[in-house]
Write a sequence for this structure.
């Protein structure tokens, strides 16, 4: 996983090498799945990520930018 500098993800602590396994309790295996879950999220303000960081599981809440 690459993390864009100065992004919400970087500010919340997501690091290069982290593996996002779930978004809002929905398993994701590909970037396209991640984008679909975020796009179709009923909670347009944010998402909860389950992240695998070198074998340790952590949860990170992120705000989601709306498309208006």
């Amino acid at each position: 996983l690459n993390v864009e500098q100065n992004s919400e993800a970087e500010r919340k602590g997501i690091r290069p090498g982290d593996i996002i396994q779930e978004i809002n309790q929905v398993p994701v295996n590909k970037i396209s799945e991640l984008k679909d879950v975020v796009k179709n999220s009923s909670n347009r303000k944010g998402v909860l990520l389950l992240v695998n960081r070198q074998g340790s599981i952590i949860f990170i809440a992120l705000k989601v930018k709306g498309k208006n």
